[in-house]
Amino acid sequence: MKKTLFLFKLILNKRILHTFAAQFKARKVKKIALFIYIFILQIPLFSQTLSGTIRSNSPISFVSVSVKGQSIGTASDANGYFEIKNLKVGTYEFVFSAIGFKKLKKVITIQEGQNTITVNLEPSSYDLEQVVVTGTLKETFLSASPVKVDVITEKFLKKIVTANVMEVIENVNGVQKQINCGVCGTNDIHINGMEGPYTLVLINGMPIMSSLSTVYGLNGIPTSLIKQIEIIKGPSSTLYGTEAVAGVINILTKNPEDVSTIEIDGFMTSHQEQNIDFAYAPKMKKADMLLSGNFFQMNNFLDDNDDNFSDIPLSERLSLFNQWNFKRKSNKDFSISAKYYLENRSGGVKEWDESLRGNNSIYGESIFTDRIELAASYQLPIEENVRIDASYNYHHQDSYYGNTKYEAYQNIYFANLLWNKRIGHNHDVLSGLTYRYQTFADSTLADVYEKKFIPAVFVQDEIAISKKWSTLLGMRSNYHDNHGFIFSPRLNLKYNPQTYTTFRLNAGTGFRLVNLFTEDHAFLTGSREVLVVEDLRPEESYNVNLNANHIFSLARSTGTIDVDAFYTYFTNKITPDYDVDPNQIIYANLDGFSVSRGLAFHIQQNFDIPLSLKAGGTFLEVYSVNENNIKENELFAPSFTGVFSLSYNWQKINTSVDWNAKVTGPMFLPTFPAPFERAEISPWFSQHHLQVKKIFSDELSVYIGVKNVFNYTQDSPLVDWKNPFGDNFDTSYAYGPLQSRRLLFGLSIKL
């Protein structure tokens, strides 16, 4: 202001006016002087700037920033930065809005000079800006991730009440739960038609669920303990090593701060299933602690398909979990956790009971499982972002399959040293050293003792090429005693041609080291002999995935449409041959190749009324071509799967209604000799679940539901069930639901 007054006085100086008067008339000079004065005076009034960063847990891009009542505005860049120039001094109402976040109106007073602020937005219920970690091993928003990640949120977990997390995961498009044994109920997850051992299951980023534990241990994770589940389809061996061929499932558990002081959640069904979860999270000064547990019981014999075998296994299981998050002066992370899991599971004919374990006249299958899991994460107290993740798990299985005893022990030691470094404005580098040591002992069936030591080193660089283009480059090198060095590269490209449209190209390789006895129980539950005809080489895969995602507005509502095209090519695939001899399973590396390819789509719509819709489908083809150029279709790989979810929130009475369904198309099934032939292709079928939840207060809610609403079940999954000790008995013909319609009632209490 002083400079302005000085210039004004200078302009009105009599000498200067006399100089101008010599050339112009005095009246014109006064007008010119007045104009110059007004112009100069207004410069500081219009020259103010407002800038800042818009964040949630991390910077938010493409946030619209506008000034109420004016036509000026801007949008935040890839780093969440925005800037508005040429503002007057004064008070304004600014509006910050972005899809996936609640609109924020903020009154800001603009002063002379540069005005800098930080704006924090709250995520909306739409979950488009869900924070994910699995794709890149560090936190990033779903929309910003260069890797396509499917997320099951805690909110969705509450829409499908179940004691088995597998029932929730299979509601993801392209993911299928497969029952491997119609007696003991072992199951696994298929991604894009590829069998369970090709999918790596992580808990909090660590390979706790692996090999022997995959078919049993996943059932022991209480859904009430889960914060979210992240799923990557396609090879991820660059970050996670062996088993991450078809994809990765990362189960993230809740932190103590996510839980009320006391929480109790329990339900029962008309089939006499009983499930109870509890959690205790006291408020403490130096640490946050969470103690939780789960108990499940099913002791009701059901035989709706009239084969004299229980349709679902009888079981009792107990799971205990304890986690500590320590509060450090440096604000660096430090957490430790422990989990114990105990299960007694059995299935068989109605006359069987536990006292008949190993009996050779009355058939039953009995499995005792106990597990111990330990995990820790520690961020070093240094300027650099360096973290150590470590885990250990012990798994013991003591079982009988008819009169065949099988007992095995597994230990897995794991450690990851991670260093995350930002270089300049464009490079975000993550590097790491991995240690994995695994022991496996089978003291009964094959007298096997194995040790696997697999060290690895990896590096990835996420590069912001421009506002529209980004890429991720990665490389991993694993070393195995029998196979030497195994390299796994990856390439991810992300392109945003406009604010709400994203294209992703993912290409990479995967590999898998095989342990047959921990991954295929067919030789235990049937009468077949296992033959390994050669030294098995590691399986290798090559994958390309193209994803397109678009966010749209329709009649004051917001939605997304997502399309995937994928292709996976396998070499050295290890295939079990059930057809050469009905009494044998022959394992060998495929001399030809194997392919999994398909197209998937998914639509999500949140309407202006409290109604949301999700629907998706996957068209799939999985096959192998042998050395004679003969094509063979993969078993239990449906040509089509579809998912559907409809949710309505009746806010006036605090009641929500959720309908979830899954449609499964035809799939190729195992063949059996006469007179035990079964259909070689399954029919179309669907499963539907309905749930109604009433919230009485913040502390109490009640829910009721119907599972398998239309009561669809397949026929008996057992072949020659009348002669379970005979040569033709087989438990693998399971393609659809085995449990009939049942009612569910539960309640949730928070204190």
Overall description:
It is built from 8 helices and 43 strands. With 751 residues, the protein is mostly beta strands. It folds into 3 domains: 2-46; 48-120, Carboxypeptidase-like, regulatory domain (Immunoglobulin-like); 249-750, Maltoporin, Chain A, CATH 2.40.170. The strands form 7 sheets. It has a 22-stranded antiparallel β-barrel. A 5-stranded mixed β-sheet has the order 10-15-16-13-14. Strand 13 and strand 14 (206-209) form a beta hairpin. Helix 1 packs antiparallel against helix 3. The protein is globular and about 90 Å long.
Descriptors for this entry?
single chain; mainly beta; Immunoglobulin-like; Maltoporin, Chain A; 22-stranded antiparallel barrel; 5-stranded mixed beta sheet; 43 strands; disordered N terminus
